[in-house]
Amino acid sequence: MTTAHSLAQLTQEAAEFLEGRVRRTPVERSPGLSEVLGVPVWLKLESLQLTGSFKIRGALFRLSRLTEQERREGVVTCSAGNHGKAVAYAAHQQGVRATICVPRSVDRAKYEGMLALGAEVLVSEFDGYDETEGWARQIAAGQRRTFISPFDDYAIMAANGGTVALEVMADAPLARTFVVPVGGGGIAAGFAAAAGSATIIGCQHALSPALRLSLDAGRAITRLPAAETLAGGVEGGIGAMTFEVLRPLIDRVALVSEDEILEGVRWMLSHHQYLIEPTAAVTIAACVSGKVGKLMGPAVVVVSGRNVSAATLKRILC
């Protein structure tokens, strides 16, 4: 499952499976970003999705593809929060045991959301995602259970990014530039593969620029030192498989600072009255700061999630 054609076929399968199981989130015009960037801009509001992020798409579709033996044994995953919450939801829906390993820096709202959905949640001794994933994979191997990657899996790419792209292109047909967040690369790779010849701008934290470093090195940088950030979903290395999909399709990478990300959260509250999490604000930050670069035509900005604790929000707003 490595060709663009195969990924496109998998995306169609994911779209058919997810119909009626997830929300078709709105595409909303942003007058503020349109003014800042000088072109019509819309927001794809995956922050309004079930479980509070786009990750529910991939979790539902990936778990639906488990074998009967894998279902009996259960799954293990690693998450900065949103993928874990989505896997907890999907596992509960499908009657699958789920163990979710999270960094000790996980946002409290995401942690409590996983527990509320009935998952076993294990907190690692590490602040960063990459070290925590290594620990989670050891647990999965030791218990002979299936490890579900948050991003480095073609079914996850197809559902998380591909199905979002299909909706965006149907609802905003004039847009040919898409601004997407990049952490491990799952949503960006799936989106880029489904969007065809569109312009794809990936947005990353300047302290954890795995895609930018990978493009410069010509190979996937799958591990990075932990970065201190409230935007845990864009911290850590990129997936080896997601990078191979993204490498020929990404047009440029915008790197934003922690302060710019937090300003993105505040900007969305001020201009759209939507609460989004810091990870989701990476795309907004790239636009508001101008680091997204010059856009040649109508654009859609993906807003990926809303899961943020009251304590984290207080730090951002005060």
Explain what you see.
The longest helix is centred in the middle third of the chain and has 18 residues. The strands form 2 sheets. A 6-stranded mixed sheet has the order 1-2-10-7-8-9, sandwiched between helices. Strands 5-4-3-6 form a 4-stranded parallel sheet, sandwiched between helices. The model has no long low-confidence stretch (mean pLDDT 96). The protein is globular and about 55 Å long. The chain has 2 domains: 216 residues, Rossmann fold (3-Layer(aba) Sandwich); 94 residues, Rossmann fold. The chain is 47% helix and 14% strand. Helix 3 packs across helix 8 and helix 9 packs parallel to helix 11. With 318 residues, it is α/β, with parallel strands linked by helices.
Task: Summarize the topology.
Elements: H1 4-18, E1 27-29, H2 31-37, E2 41-45, H3 55-64, H4 68-73, E3 75-78, H5 82-94, E4 98-102, H6 108-116, E5 120-123, H7 129-143, E6 146-148, H8 154-171, E7 177-181, H9 186-195, E8 199-205, H10 210-217, H11 240-246, E9 252-256, H12 258-272, H13 281-288, E10 299-303, H14 310-317
Parallel strand pairs: 2-10, 3-4, 3-6, 4-5, 7-8, 7-10, 8-9
Antiparallel strand pairs: 1-2
Helix pairs in contact: 1-8, 3-5, 3-8, 5-6, 8-9, 9-11, 12-13
